Amino acid sequence: MVAGATYDRIGRGYGEARGEDARIAAAIERGLGAARSVVNVGAGTGSYEPRDREVTAVEPSTVMIEQRPAGAAPVIHASAEALPLDDDSFDAAMTIFSDHHWEERGVGLRELRRVARERVVLVNADPSLIGDCWLARDYLPGFARIAPERYRERGFWEAELRELLGEVEIEPIPVSADCTDGFCGAWWHRPEAYLDPAVRAGTSVFQVLPEEEVRAAIERLRRDLADGTWARRNAELLQREETDLGLRLVVARP
Questions:
Q1: 3-252 CATH choice from 3.10.129.10, 3.30.70.1350, 3.40.50.150, 3.40.720.10
Q2: With a threshold of 0.85, does the pTM exceed it?
Q3: What are the start-end ranges of the H helices in 78-234?
């Protein structure tokens, strides 16, 4: 299913559950460097679009476009795989938490490279590391299986990025205990948040996995929180102020 159709189906209310985290935004700003004109592909509701640069958004989902706030960057209704833009038309092309939803990821990333004069900036999680997260490991194993099998191999994701984008710089982005963006891993230190349907509504994994699998996982988590099992199992994790969930800043200079 293409990204636009997916988010037309599951994206209602997304803007209420998701937002920006200042530390992730700072990483994106570093990645963009001195770029003045930026195209944001898979732009969604506009999170992480720089306010002090010339931004054009590209988004395939009408539902997501309708949730963009007043004053957001102008948006083009199109897919990553077929950008209606000229070669080298922006200083930078960026995509944030988006490329895993594209029907043809390789085509989309090559399109970003085509339209960017200076750099391509990508933020997403290395899919081979998802299974290390307690949510996938202990409650929702289907989370790790969403990615195609080859992406679960350590090193494949990075190798493919280099094949598609050329030389890349890859920097870990630690996720803080009080992360203010509601993506799936953001609640690693606040497990009770996953019991809230509104929180789950802002995370695609809970929408695409079978309903019965999600329901069973949430009930197990509810019991483990109530009797202290979760806290005992994750005692060391609770001592941290931030952790590595596999989130990465990728910068390529075409």
A1: 3.40.50.150
A2: yes
A3: 105-115, 134, 142-145, 156-165, 197-201, 204-208, 211-227, 229-233
